[in-house]
Amino acid sequence: MVQDWSLTILIVPILNFPSMSGYGMGLLTWLNVPQIYQNYLLMTMSFVMCVAIVHIFENRFYQLFALQTIWSKFRIPFIIINYTLSFSINMPIALAVPQDQKTELVNVFLVSSHDYSIRPIIVFRGFPT
């Protein structure tokens, strides 16, 4: 449910193809939350949803087959590690986004037209080889 709300109300990602770029048009954009935090939230909620599905299947396995086994000792650390990794795996990506310093120069030298909307766009690209 949180994944659905983050996609349809909070962020509403609009993708620009064929370049891997996009921007958000949701409630968080209206509240001036930076784009990188919105992307981190979206990616983290996707990972948490996957971990929750794994946890549902693990709980079913535990209840049916592993109540009196060694798995009962490793179960809680397994769940804690999974949720910790789901929140922290995206941190290096979110912290490695460079600051956009050329935008101020473009806004100074170019006159903005009302025909175009100026929005913060995040561009996904690979590392140079």
From TrEMBL:
<keyword id="KW-0472">Membrane</keyword>
<dbReference type="Pfam" id="PF10318">
    <property type="entry name" value="7TM_GPCR_Srh"/>
</dbReference>
<keyword id="KW-0812">Transmembrane</keyword>
<keyword id="KW-1133">Transmembrane helix</keyword>
<feature type="transmembrane region" description="Helical">
    <location>
        <begin position="37"/>
        <end position="57"/>
    </location>
</feature>
<feature type="transmembrane region" description="Helical">
    <location>
        <begin position="78"/>
        <end position="97"/>
    </location>
</feature>
<dbReference type="InterPro" id="IPR019422">
    <property type="entry name" value="7TM_GPCR_serpentine_rcpt_Srh"/>
</dbReference>
<protein>
    <recommendedName>
        <fullName>Serpentine receptor class gamma</fullName>
    </recommendedName>
</protein>
<feature type="transmembrane region" description="Helical">
    <location>
        <begin position="7"/>
        <end position="31"/>
    </location>
</feature>
